[in-house]
Each structure stands twice: as C-alpha cells, then as structure tokens.
Amino acid sequence: MEAPQQAHIAMLLTPGMGHLIPLTELARKLVHLHSFSVTFIILDDGVSSTKTQLQTLLQTLPNPTNSILLPPPPDIAGDITAESRVVLSTIRSGPSLRKALTDLKESIPTRRISAFVADLFGIFTLDVAKELDIPAYLFFTSTAMTLSFSLHLPELHESSTCDQYRDLPEPLKLPGLVPVRGSDFMDPTQDRKTDAYKGCVEMCRKYRLADGILVNSFFDLEPDTFNALDQNNRMPPIYPIGPLIRPGSKNIKDGLKCLEWLDKQPLCSVLYVSFGSEGTLSRDQLNELVSGLRMSEQRFLLVAKTPRDCRTRSSHHDDEYDQCAELTEWTTNNNNNKEKGFVLPSKWAPQVEILAHVAVGGFLTHCGWNSTLESIVNGVPLIAWPLYAEQKMNAVLLSEGLKVAIRVTEGENGIVGREQISRLARDLIEGEEGEVLRKRMWNLKEGATRALSQDGSSTQTLANVAKKWMEHP
Ligand code: UDP
Questions:
Q1: What are the tens digits of pLDDT across the range 394-430?
Q2: 119 assigned to active site
Q3: Can you give the pTM of this predicted structure?
Q4: Are residues 211 and 135 in contact, defined by beta-carbon separation less than 8 angstroms?
Q5: Selected catalytic residue, list 44, 45, 119, 318
Q6: E strands, 123-237, where?
Q7: Residue 3 maps to a domain
Q8: Which of 94, 116, 129, 311 sits at a 20 to 30 Å CA gap from 364?
Q9: How far apart are CA 349 and CA 401, in angstroms?
C-alpha cells in the first residue's frame, strides 16, 4: 500500500531571535502533532548577527524539515534600522521567493503547499504566496494587544491630526485593550514624519489581507482583546496558539557556570537581569544598574552586554564587538569576590534554563515577548524595563493590565537611577508587592499550562488550523 503523502507547509524565516524561536517551535508542533512536513525559506538580509543561533536552532528540528536560503537582495543602503533592513529585504526578495516556492511545489509529491506562514516582518511576501494560490498566513510573535493596535493603526493614522502620538491628550482606548499612552506606542510609530512610520502603516494595512493570523499568546492571557478581535468582521481570523517557547535543554555548554551558581542559591531568591538578544544599555546606565543591584543586597544574575557606547564596530556584527575593559574587570572582580551577584558577560545566556531554575524569584526584563512568555510559563514576576520595538506596549500590558510587573521610570536625564533599581529589586524579591505579583504570575503559569494541555485552547486552535490546511484543495 502506498504511504500517505504528507501535507507541506512553507515558512519564511527573517533574522531576529524573537521571531526565529517561535516559528521553529511552530514547525516542531506541525511536524510532531499534525504530521506536516515543513520547508523553511530563510531570508538573508546580508548583515544580521543571528546566523549562528539560527544554525543551532535548525539542527534541533525534527525531520521532515528542510531549508532553502534565499540570496541576499542587492541595493540596500547601509544607514537604516535593522527592522527596515529586514522589511526591505523581504520586499526585494520577491522574485527569489517566487522561484523558491515554485520549485518547492514542483519538488514535493503532492505538488501542493498547504500554507505559507511568514512572521510580521514578512508581511509583504504574502502577496507572492497568494499569486501562487497558496493560503497565506501571518505568525504574529507578540501580544494580541500589539496585533490589535497594528490592525487599528491605519485608521488611527487617517483620523489623528496630532504631529506626534506622544502629544495625544488621552491614552488610546481600543476595544478590549488596556488604554495606552501615545508615548508607549511601538517604536516605529513614534515619529510620524519618518519613512519607518509610513512603512509601518503600510505593513499594518497589509495585515488585514492575511488568510489568518496566528498569535503567540493564549486566550486566557488576553481574553478581552481576543474577543474584541473576533467580533470585528473586518479582521482576518485570529488564532491564539501560544505560548510557543524554546524547550529547556539538559546539555547546556555556554553559560553553564551561572546555572551552577544558581544551584547554590536559596529558593526564589535571585533576580535575573537581561535585556534580550539585542538590548544594550549605555555605560552610565549599566554602572547605575550594577550599583542599584548591589545596593539592594539581593542576589542577582546579570547578563551584561558590552555597553552600546563602548562598542567599536557596527551593531550588525555582533561577533566583532570589542569587550568593554571596565565590564571585563568588574565581572572578574565581582565573581571572584563571591558577591551576591553573578555577572555573565555574554552575548548569549541559557535563558530558558535560568528562568526554569527554582532559585530565580524575579526577572528584570526588556519585555521582549519571548522573554515574557518564558517568565509566564515559569511563574516568575517581573520588573519591566522596556527598551525598543513594541516593548513599551508589552510593559503596559504587564504592569497595568495583568499586574504582574513593576515598571521602571526613567529620570529626566534618561537614566533609571540606582535608588529606584535597588528599591524595585528588594520589593520584587522579598517585599509584599513581589509576593502579590508572584501569585498572579503563578495563575498565569497555570493558564499557560492549561492552554497547552491536550484539550487546551491553544492546542485545539492549532489543531483547527492544521485541519483547515490539510483540507486546502
Ligand atoms: N535569549 C537567550 N539568551 C540570551 C538572550 C536571549 O536565550 O542571552 C533568548 C530568550 O530566551 C528569548 C529570545 O532569545 O527566547 C529573545 O526574544 P525576546 O522576544 O525576549 O527579545 P528580543 O531579543 O527579540 O528583543
């Protein structure tokens, strides 16, 4: 008897760990739970620093997953933001993507691709898939809140007369969302005069044309937002399928020392401090942070990247950064003197394993959505210190909506002072406020576990999407 032919999914991977991790996890589920085969089409923007981590991620994926590397597109000017570079690369990669999808169709036994899935930066590639009669989906790797904001942005753009959204007299109130002040809107929308803003509005218009949008969140985390999106018949179908995070590993080599240090600390006593894969502070801010952590007399594990004003090379070439001499000396002294803190002068920490460690009692985070989900599934409460992208909106959700985070406030000089850092660290790890936030986080953790259980909302939602894809003629 002939073996049943596997349905096939094509996924576009764009640079940036925040997108790569959830997309590869989605692929893992589609292969393991729904018997799809998956081909990754990998966009090379010519400069990104995530290549090594991408290789590691791809090596851990199950069969049958294949990958195709698109050639880097020509003619991208040097001086633009990393996000704009990725979006421009996706637009200019249209012809090579069309060829890759056409060749892929020809090469698979069914001659049929059941769905094409792109992350939010790949939105302009959905047109290419549609031309080839492939259902085109977006995987939104952030909150339903940011998705809803993005879907409403074109209307806000038309109706709003202010020069800058930060001048809006009132916080924006969208159906099902915590009110958001203009100054907390996601980064590219901050300056309405820029090309990045215009591009962002254009991208958000395109979101509505997707055949469906998968979201790395779960219904019980943002029920009002999902309900409001569901009731709006001008929106594409929205599918909450999260939290999809990288599973922990027992074979950690990089950063093993910090896990060994954690093994020696009491339960829930350590504040983990990290600003994600790209977040960096200035030298002054890093000094202030370290002083504040020491003043707090709490245990801490700090992932310290070279301060951005100590770097000597372009931010796109991470491997080539010179280490900041102060940071190296200070790390060695700190760790040798067995202070209460452990400093990991690292480009890459074993974050999933750290957050799952029983000694970790709090997380000072830049509010990247993957980091946040990793904290939620481990029930770790937060200090929210948003830096870029949509992180300020995430901080609003976490501190004002879900109330599982205390948010830092910058002084007029743009620096978060040591006294504040010290107080927040103490409040979170040993204060009453920390206890309340921890209990709320544990409830969210239970919600996440329920959503991913066999009958859970996210598992069922993904099963429904998979069925739809299987049935695509
Ligand atoms: N990450 C990690 N080690 C690091 C920095 C980041 O494992 O030193 C992982 C982290 O666990 C998360 C992802 O990289 O899964 C970062 O994604 P997030 O959305 O939090 O922030 P981004 O880096 O995209 O701003």
A1: 999 999 999 999 999 999 999 999 999 999 999 999 9
A2: yes
A3: 0.94
A4: yes
A5: 119
A6: 136-140, 212-215
A7: no
A8: 311
A9: 29
